[in-house]
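Before drawing any conclusions, I needed to go through one protein's amino acid sequence and its backbone structure tokens, quoted below without any editing.
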Amino acid sequence: MEAVSQRDESPRTDRRHSVRHLGDALDQVRKTKYARLTGNRRKFIKGKKYALLSHKENLNPEGKRSLKLLLKTNKRLNTAYLLRESFDHPLGLQLGRLGATVL
């Protein structure tokens, strides 16, 4: 019974908080990558935080191009970005409900 009571007292996170934590993790990956680079290579990541942390639909064409190039050239950022996007995708939850309804 003790294990159940401890589990009930643990803080619960909803989808919005989980997405926020994924965004924070994505920003940490960006900062780590920036710290590892030197000279002109730093300029490539500098100024891309908004593009990286924004929803793709909210970016202007220049921001979309910048994001695409950044993700194409950096595997770690791309992986972290795809994880956040897949979790935050508006259909992610809807498809789960649809599947449960169809079955």
